[in-house]
Design brief:
5-stranded antiparallel sheet; 3 helices
Length: about 110
């Protein structure tokens, strides 16, 4: 059977159930959107919220890793800028460029005890 014949069979109306194909199509699209939401959008939003909370809890003395891979200690924090001491140099980094906090400072560890 040719490809044209297969398409004709697949899309031909089948009597009174011609509208049933549309309902199945809408359900498939809805399922695709739901899967897309739960596998991509929702986890990304959760990760963004966790990163925002991490940046809000940033303190002096914390060991951090920047998104560029620089490891250093937080020396000074301004509104949107963080001064980081790495080795013998000090760097000013955007707060959003901080990827992770490796170790909390000694003062922050002493408070909860």
């Amino acid at each position: 059977m040719t490809t044209l014949g297969l398409f004709a069979l697949a899309f031909a109306p089948s009597g009174q159930n011609a509208g049933g194909g549309l309902a199945v199509f809408v359900l498939q699209i809805a399922a695709f959107i739901a899967i897309f939401y739960f596998l991509l959008i929702r986890p990304q939003r959760r990760q963004q919220a966790e990163h925002k909370q991490l940046l809000a809890s940033l303190q002096r003395g914390d060991q951090i890793v920047t998104s560029g891979g620089i490891i250093g200690e937080v020396v000074h924090i301004k509104d949107d800028q963080v001064t980081v001491r790495s080795g013998e140099s000090k760097l000013v980094v955007s707060r959003s460029g901080i990827a992770n906090i490796v170790n909390r400072g000694a003062a922050a560890e002493a408070k909860p005890s």
